[in-house]
Amino acid sequence: MYKRKTVILILCLAFAEFGTAFLSGACGRLQSGQARSCSSAVEHFHKVPKKLFPRSVLKHLCSDAAESESDCLESFQESGQVWAGDVNDDGINELLIYPGPDWSGTAGDTYILYQRQARKWTPLYPNQGYFGWQVPDPRFDILPVLHGGYHDLRVSTDWCLKWDGEKYVDYEASDYHKLSPDFFNRSTWYEAGIFWNIHYTGLRHVRIKPQWFTIPSDFSTRGRVNAKIEDSEQGVVWTALFKGGVWGVRGSRAFLLLPQPAYKGSEQMEIDGDWLVIHGEIEDFSTPPPVVARYNRRTKELQIVKGTSAGDPPRQPD
Fold first, then answer.
1. What is the CA radius of gyration of the chain?
2. Rounded to an integer, what distance in angstroms lies between the CA atom of residue 56 and that of residue 144?
3. Is 39 left (phi over 0), alpha (psi -120 to 50) or beta?
4. What's the pTM value of the predicted model, to 2 decimals?
5. 15 and 119 in a common domain
6. Dihedral of CA 125/312/268/285: which sign?
7. Stronger pLDDT, 129 or 220, i.e. the higher one
């Protein structure tokens, strides 16, 4: 396994005295596939002592680490963290593990789900032989939607998982479209990706209704900006962020036009008549990067090029 900063989500059946995370309140309990209409129904993993994480499972994980097993174990003791949450409403918490900073990579933090079935620890999100997913912006959300008795999870700003009867799998576009926007915070720009997915993910031709957010003053400088275009006609600055989306920025407000369209984000844009032309990442400086989307600035029609991954539901990188 290559080195990467890893936050490992290990779902394991712990003892009941570690706490419970039953959903309560006016929202009530839901049946499989149903969703609640109130944002208070979203639960979160909460921090617990590291000693709750079984050392035998940690040793097994460390045996697959790029560093030595002893260094991996020491790293967990120094920097590791553990959270707990109940994903299947059985009154027994599952555990969320961050083993330490020695597992790092450009794709972000990694989560791994396990469940204790009798005496065996079984991964709940196996992905092509690897037991986790990587994200740079982790979320520890337990959503008020159930499949097969297990809550859906949000593991990143715009990335959700559902239970298929045996393991957690990535959301399809239709799953995002069924989510209630009321589950999420409309007041913060960090949540823009999940709102975009709810309305548009997986669609190739859509009419965008900009959802404006107040942004911090350092919005365009806190991370690398790949490309910018001043659009005096629309009164916005089209801004493509490194490993991020394409935004329309107007003063202290902005809307997400297109989530991260390529690994590095869009590295080239231009205006062609009514159209904002959005390219992917540059692979060969002798040729322009491929066009991934076009946005009609007058009609607000977004056309995503067929055969690209732009606008698709988030997935674990291969």
1. 21
2. 32
3. alpha
4. 0.83
5. yes
6. positive
7. 220
In a domain? residue 259: yes
User: Based on the structure, what is the number of domains in the chain?
Assistant: 2
In the prediction, which pLDDT does 2 show?
42
The CA distance from 277 to 293, in Å, is 6
DSSP of 150-188:
EEEEEEETTEEEEE-SSSEEEPPHHHHHHS-GGGS-TT-
Closest CA to 236 of 223, 259, 220, 224: 220
pLDDT of residue 310: 87
CA distance 68 to 54: 19
Nearest to 172 by CA among 317, 312, 318, 30: 312
Domain that includes residue 19, residue range: 6-184
317 part of a folded domain: no
Percent composition of the chain: helix, strand, coil (DSSP 3-state, to 5): 15, 35, 50
User: CA 141 to CA 218: how far, in whole Å?
Assistant: 27
Predicted pLDDT at 128:
58
8 A C-beta contact, residue 300 and residue 207:
yes
Cβ proximity of 23 and 129 under 8 Å: no
- Cβ neighbors of 56 (< 8 A, separation 6 or more) are none
Q: What is the DSSP string of 38-104?
A: -GGG-EE-EEE-GGGS-HHHHHHHHTTSSS-HHHHHHHHHHH-EEEEE-SSSSS--EEEEEEETTS-
Residue pointed to by tokens 């911090």: 216
The strand order across the sheet containing 94-100 reads 6-8, 94-100, 81-85, 46-48
CB 48 within 8 A of CB 82: yes
Residue type, 257: L
